[in-house]
Amino acid sequence: MSVPVKNNSKSAIISMLNYEWVVMNISYFLFLAILAILYIANGHLTDKSIRKINSTKKEIKQLQFEYKTLKADLMLKSEAINIEKAMAPYGLQIAKDMSIHIPLEKRFDLPNEKNKAN
């Protein structure tokens, strides 16, 4: 009877990593290195895009607040009482009487309208 021989796992790994095996698989190693570089670059570009999106969101929110504030100020200033107060230093007042309507006696037709009627 023969005794089974136990293979040492360290020697098996070392024998696989010899010069010939590395040279035969160099294209695979280069492919893995390129994939790793692309993966890292993609992560950096994603982080940069997220930072830009967040800064744009903050800017939009700030502009919305500014718009709402200006709109509220305009509505307040365009009320009749506020307009009257603003024009008082210039001597302008709201008219107390109704406006006068001046009726036209005859309507003058334009030459193009005569052609359209026929």
Describe the structure.
The longest helix has 52 residues, at 26-77. The chain has helices spanning 9-16, 19-24, 26-77, 80-87, 111-117. Helix content is 69%, strand content 0%. It starts with 8 loop residues before the first helix and ends with a helix. The protein is built from five helices and no strands. The radius of gyration is 43 Å and the shape is rod-shaped. It has one domain (9-91). With 118 residues, it is an all-alpha fold.
**Using only CA atoms, what is the Rg?**
43 Å
Helix content: 55-70%
Mean pLDDT: 83
> Looking at the structure, what is the overall shape?
rod-shaped
Number of domains: 1
Write a short abstract of this structure:
This protein is an all-alpha fold and 118 residues long. The protein contains 5 helices and no strands.
Question: What is this structure's SSE topology?
Answer:
Elements: H1 9-16, H2 19-24, H3 26-77, H4 80-87, H5 111-117
Properties at a glance:
118 residues, mainly alpha, 5 helices, rod-shaped
